[in-house]
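Question thread 4412

I'm putting together a teaching handout and wanted feedback from people who do this every day. The idea is simple: show students a protein as raw sequence, then show them the structure tokens that encode its fold, then repeat with a second protein so they can compare. Below is the first pair exactly as I plan to print it.
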Amino acid sequence: MSDNINIIEIIKNIPNNLELTGSMLIVALVGILIVLIELGILAVLIQGISKIVRALEGAVSKKSAAPAAEAPAPAAAPVAAPAAPSAGVQLVGVDEPTAAVIMAIVSNESGIPLNRLSFKSIKITEDK
């Protein structure tokens, strides 16, 4: 019989549970609406601040562009870099990958960048 009483109590409490669920649903919906309204206000504020900043940047750039237009600075002449011979390295008894490794080691050990070095020839000698 105690099982029947528990089931009956549960059935009696169903309307109370529905009322709580309904009130919880209303609170959740109101919370969601508040968050959406706040996000909308934030979006409008961001757009307003963006327009103000753009207007200020435009005013500053117009003021700074006027003196620059009156007296332009002379352009510096470009300095031509010395042309490095692309196929000027003579390889004697050395394949290209080995020559590349040797050039990289020389550059690393000397501390001089590879584009500043000029190799005339690379030759492997026999140690006696």
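The second pair follows. I'd like the answer to focus on this one:
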Amino acid sequence: RSPSEYSRYWGFENSEGSSLAQTRALLRQADTFHQARSAVIYALFVPRDQAKGLNAADFGSAQSARLALNRRLQNAAIGDSDQLLLVLVPSAGPPVQQQLEVTRQEVLQQAKLFRMAVSDPEDDISYRPLAQQMYQWLFAPVEPDVQRLQLDNVMYVVDPGLRTVPLAAMMNDDRFIVERYGLSIIPSVNLLQTSFGDPPPPPQTVAAGADQFMQQENLPAVSLELAAIADSQKSTQVLLNEAFTQTNLATVRAQSQAAMLHLATHAEFNAGDLPSSYLQFWDSQLTFDQIREMGWEDLELLILSACATAISSPEAELGFAGLAAATGVESSIGSLWNVSDVGTLALMAEFYGHWSQTPLRFDALRRSQLSLLQGDTQIANQSLLTARGQIKLPAEWNLPEFADFRHPFYWSGFTLVGNPWW
């Protein structure tokens, strides 16, 4: 239950934790440079008798909280009856600690059901009580403090079993949390890659992927997705189908010094060790034990628009939540499940449109999710209507005359991991 989980899984060197002062300094810098108020919400499970003895002052950051907890609980086994503890770490003032009378077993069972219900676009009812319950457990206890601090963005550091929960779909009554706050997942504060200063210019971008596969489901909207990115990000190089090879990607990145990489291809975060998970190229698979050899340390943002993460797998969670830190990338955005091909095109078209207006990654993702949730992005008359205009869709796709993407299946699975700013 520490960053060593990630270092063991990914095979990188563990680092020291951040102190309370260091975490506050980081958050204050973000407040100042990004004009966005941020905080860390830490959700962990602790034995009932141990939780009462914990001091909020121990929870100076996600990492120091974990270290403090480990010191106290080093002889305590993980138990189903452990209680949920929330700790809010703001840029100033003491951490806020809330212990809940709910067990690990109860929370993780509901979290699994929540993810399964949200990922069914045909059911618009079953996920709602689960979404409201997750909100009451993972956010409501610290919500008064979030409102008092006037936060714009919260970074969650969570225990195993919660790392692939679609947090954006949590609901307070009939309102989704993403309607009020930007959200992201971080493995720990000390693993954040940050830079502060003026907003960067539009990055050089490589957009790559395939719409045809030999042994996997085709992704027919990928060519339109890459074209939409190239239209939005003028300095974009596209690698499609036969051109989408590991060698070509390395060559293009070296020539362009691209700071952003968008991969529209199958990516699987599976149970088991690193070779069990992979990115699919046109002619090969890049397994996760090889991914750190790709030299992505200078990337600011990695987007995996067609990935899927196994449910109830600790390794899949470590893969999804640890990818950015392990590869040296500042941030990654990926989907928790296989979103429909047109739904992915819709969200990605909106993301790049909004990102051209705000350099804040959490804000661009949030705005794109709201565009789908609020029905602004829709299919009408064989076209995808977005904030940037229309994208004509092929007639052979046999799409309905009208359709929207309001259901959280289409937008809540896309999750920002790592640096939420720029």
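Top answer:
Good format. For the second protein you could add a caption like this: The chain has a mean pLDDT of 90. The longest strand covers residues 260-269.
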